[in-house]
Amino acid sequence: MAVDAHDSALLRQFLDPDTKETGFTAIVAKYQERLYGHIRRLVIEHEDANDILQNVFIKVWNSLDGFKMQSQLYTWLYRIATNECLSFLEQKRKKATQSLEGEKSIALLKADGYFDPAKLEWKLQLAIQQLPEKQRIVFNLRYFDGMPYQKMSLILDTSEGSLKASYHHAVKKIEEYLLSH
Question: Is residue 174 a contact partner of residue 131, using CB atoms and an 8 Å limit?
């Protein structure tokens, strides 16, 4: 799948030394909101999401010259963002036990003004936090971003069948959580 025309123009602008910063700024402007939403759903805390987003764009700046244009820019960016989230979550997991971490995520979610406890989305977010990490990532990509399994497969380097199974299990667990809470 080739890069779309608008992204191709932005990439050409980035690769030109005279317009590199302008091209990069345009790429950031186009994708930062979508990437932030993806990251925020995975790590919950606003400050962590902002830090990870900055790390993502630092990596993009340093490696965009090597982007081979064999996939959509969007897919490539999501893969970097997902990998950054996974690294962050792994580091965080090493600092705390799994049971305490789940409780902490739920406590952070409850204290976060971004989510309204009177709304169903708040309960949905609580249910999502109960999921194992892989199921949580797959659910977020599919449910919130509407990402096709084919693109998820490229981002997560996992088979489409495995992703479909993870999504199915996640949906069942979320349904059970919502019905019992």
Answer: yes
